[in-house]
Amino acid sequence: MPKVQETILEIDLRALKHNFEYLKSKLKSNTKFLAVVKAFAYGNDADEIAIYLEDLDIDYFAVAYANEGVALRQAGVTKPILVLHTLRVNFDIILENCLEPNLYNAKILHEFIAFAEAEKQHEYPIHIKFNTGLNRLGFWENDVDYIVSKLKQTKTVRVKSLFSHLAASEDLNEKTFTLSQINNFKAIAESLSKAIGYKPILHICNTSGVLNYPVAHLDMIRCGIGLYGYGNSAKESAHLKPIASLKTVISQIHQIEKGESVGYNRAYKSDEPFTKTATLPLGHADGIGRIYGNGKGFVTINGKKAPIIGIVCMDMIMVNITGIDCKEGNEVIVFDGKTTSAETLAEGAGTISYELITGISQRVKRVIIK
Fold it and tell me: Does domain 244-368 sit in CATH 2.40.37.10?
């Protein structure tokens, strides 16, 4: 790679391929693989990642909202795209872009069927989600009869899949609860499939579900965080490769005397006779939130940790480089797959890797490594 001269997010598609192949090795040969590429593919680059995964023969994609699916279509993605959080206002663009809506309650099911009838659709693919314990989106078990009655009244839609979402698949202390979710979903799916006369694709496993509950792989699995290099446990993360590396450079170095302060509200005051600080060109507008300030976060410069001091600014952070041999223009690693993982950085600030990586601003330049 050329020398880093600004803040960049390197995205290594070789690592993505490794993760895809590792996760796929856990599945039976006939189990489909759905890649979750919502939120810019977890803060990376959804277009590049989806196109690359199509080349690897992925079966399905999922996005949170319809406009994310539209962007993928405009980038040339052709595989089926499930919209996980369908909203009435987006029915038109869902149809125009051959996206497949998740219909999760009576209102949205009724409205989409009416819309499909008005548009003279025939067996348009839809997905039905059931709530088995996460209590976020989804029909309840006692809604099966209502769903069946609506489906039997129309030929405009056809159920492509039935699915649910595990609430605590990464926490083996919650194994009893997770197994109850799995068993409940299987019973619901069997009841509904029998009533409509055909069997849709069934899926309930997220990344941790894939790794911890092989019994629940069913017809398809959904992987998000695992594709991007994190397994929700040290054991599984060791088999995966983080695909993203956030790097920046030292803009300026200061020498601070005892009693002098750094940054807004004088949040950092030096109590040492001599402190050396470096200013870096990234801040909370780039995704490094204020929670990483005052020593909770750090960066790595020439192999040594440099804690973030003071309050994180919108466009800059300051770090303590006392004792580190470096100069202006040197490369700085915020997180990567080798020096510091996003999991480690996030844990130090009391959050999780998901929040850190999905929060990297779109103004940060993406550099794709193929």
Answer: yes
